[in-house]
Amino acid sequence: MRIQVGRKLGLFGGAAAATLLIATGALAAPDAASEADRDARIARLEAAVAALQSAAQDNAALRAQNQELQGEVSDLQAQVADLKSTSNQQTDDIRHTIAAQPTVSLADGRPTFSTADGNFTASLRGVLQFDTAFYSQNSPGVATGGGATDFRRDGPALGSSSSNVDLAHARELKDGALFRRARIGVDGSVLKTFDYRLLFDFGGSGTENTGQVYEAWLQYSGLQPLKLRVGAFAPAMGLEDQGSTNGMPFLERPGSSDVARGIAGGDTRTAIALFGNGARWFFSAALTGRTISAINSGAVLAINSTPSTAALGTAQTFGDQLGFVGRVNYLPIRTPTDIVLVGAHGANVLHTANNAGPATNGVTPLSTYVVRLRDTPELRVDGTQFVDTGNIPARHASTWGLEFAAQHKNLFLQAEYESFNVQRTDTIASPNFSAWYVEGTWLITGEQRKYNAGAAAFDAPPVAHPVKLTGGGWGAWELALRYSDLDLNYNQGALGTAPSSSAIRGGRQQIFAAGINWYFNPVMRVMLNVERVHIDRLSPNATNYQTPAGAQIGQDFTAVAIRTQAAF
After folding, report:
1. Rounded to two decimals, what is the model's pTM?
2. Which of 34, 443, 526, 552 could anchor a disulfide with 410, C-beta 3.0 to 4.6 Å?
3. For residue 413, what is the DSSP state?
4. What number of other Cβ atoms are within 10 A of residue 65's Cβ?
5. What are the phi and psi torsion angles at 528 (to 5°)?
6. What secondary structure does DSSP assign to 246-283, as a single string?
């Protein structure tokens, strides 16, 4: 439109200019011209002026038309700009709406919900471990005192008896199946500085639980690299203690770890802990109280009740146990392929639980305060505890341990040593005990176990080639070997003799275990364990155990177990 108007203006302007030039030239004619010529020239000039005036009027009209068109174009451009602005605003609103929506992820199969800004998160956590086992027990030999009577026994020592333990018959272990762990819960964070977890467990040790709180804690993480946690949880007490039960190379922890963690730590322990870690270091310190187990699962502990009440649950006491647990670790070597860890840990029972309260005279007998150490062979389908110190009258108990682990590519080695001490309340000498284990793994498929710096422990390996129905791999395969030795004897004396006043015939448990682990993916795995178990224990009391004095009540057996696991 602008081009057409310009062309018209140019044509009119050119004609007017030409006319004017002609008229001007006429006026410049010589004076000799006749008056008629002058009149003619004046007429032509007047015509030229009229033409110019007409052209000027046309030009003004065209300019007005052009300005009107330009105004319309400007209006159209403004409308287009408004449409673009509205569209951009609507797009931004949609983007902001989408960005403000909660997110859902499934990292390693664990459903996690999070607000868009990450200030609030919640992750579902679940564990299912189903164990089946077969026990092959050796026939009893000729027992002390003659005859072929079977003196294999289990249960409490030091003259204690219980209605739920049969001490008069030989102990045959139970083949069968067990839901070792069946857990469901949630954990997450609040405002990025507070963490929480609530976890319930329906599994058991020898028998399933009806359900109980397994972990319930709150944590403040705004003191980085330090964290403060309070509630019910297992405070740091060693490599096997802090390693995830979902990724352990064997079905159960070694006996040394179970006894040590039970002194003042272990599962469902109420505690307040301060801990932290860096790339190469870790430390933890915790003040601990009682356990909140609804049912005694059979794990080792500084017991707060007699065996008869333990089967029904943790008994109400007149004063809870108070203890301290600490741990420190350092990595002198840490590369992508090599890790070496050294560390130490310890626990001290500042005072044991008051189980019975004061007598009629208002004084609480020292015998009310007891400590008990015991363990089940490293398989829980049958929850029999062959090694058991029984109730030891004591106000204090302690343990200290050393830790070592090394990893080179797909080879892994780990070992721990424990020393236990119980301070009696009577005049009898205070006993001490010891335990240790060493284990190693070889990941045939080339992966290596993951190091968890936040727990200073090693977890299950990543699965480089998960098993799939089509186009999948073979998963991850791992071979494992372990030897463990737990000695709960103190001045046990000789075979065939009655115990001395200071003797504790808790027994010695030696286990050689081999395992194959098949990790299908980060959630599922199958484990096969074969254990050769040797229990060496002299009868603590001939009357209660219905054996000759000092008879051998231990035994040898082989166990084969399979675990099917799904954990996220």
Report:
1. 0.79
2. 443
3. E
4. 14
5. -125, 120
6. TT-SSSS--HHHHHHHHHH-STTEEEEEEEEE-SSEEE
Q: How confident is the model at residue 408 (pLDDT cuts 50, 70, 90)?
A: very high
| Secondary element (H or E) of residue 347 | strand 338-351
Q: How many Cβ atoms sit within 10 Å of the Cβ of residue 139?
A: 7
Q: Residue 440: CB partners within 8 Å, gap ≥ 6?
A: 411, 412, 413, 414, 480, 481, 482
| DSSP string for residues in 101-140 | S-EEE-GGG--EEE-TTSSEEEEEEEEEEEEEEEEEEPPP
- Verify cis geometry, omega within 30 degrees of 0, for the bond prior to 225: yes
Q: pLDDT higher for 380 or 144?
A: 380
- Per residue in 433-475, pLDDT (tens digit) is 999 999 999 999 999 999 999 999 999 999 999 998 887 789 9
104 Cα distance to chain centroid: 18
* SS3 at position 144: coil
Coil, strand or helix at 47:
helix
CB 269 within 8 A of CB 237: no
Residue among 564, 557, 567, 566 at smallest CA distance from 530: 557
Going by C-alpha positions, the residue among 221, 206, 181 that lies closest to residue 454 is 221
Q: How does pLDDT run across 533-545, given as a tens digit for each residue?
A: 999 999 998 888 8
CB neighbour list of residue 193: distance below 8 Å, 6 or more residues apart: 220, 221, 222
Q: Where in the chain are the domains?
A: 2-99, 105-351+362-567
- Assign domain 105-351+362-567 one CATH number from 3.60.20.10, 3.30.465.10, 3.30.450.20, 2.40.160.10: 2.40.160.10
Query: Helix 2-27 to helix 35-99 angle, to the nearest 10 degrees?
Result: 160
In the chain, the amino acid numbered 13 is: G
Please state, in angstroms and rounded to a whole number, the distance separating the CA atoms of residues 334 and 194: 30
Bridge pairing between strands 338-351 and 370-371:
unpaired
- Closest residue by Cα to residue 419 from 404, 433, 431, 403: 433
pLDDT band at 98 (very low <50, low <70, confident <90, very high): low
Q: CA 119 to CA 491: how far, in whole Å?
A: 59
Q: Would you state the structure tokens that stand for residue 434, as one six-digit string? A: 């010891």
**Tokens of residue 558, six digits:** 């082989």
Residue 320 has pLDDT above 60, yes or no: yes
Residues above pLDDT 70, as percent of the chain: 85
* Pairwise CA distance, residues 373 & 352, whole Å: 13
145: pLDDT strictly greater than 90: no
523 close to 530: Cβ distance less than 8 angstroms:
no
pLDDT given at position 546 = 83
| Radius of gyration of the CA atoms of the chain, in A | 44
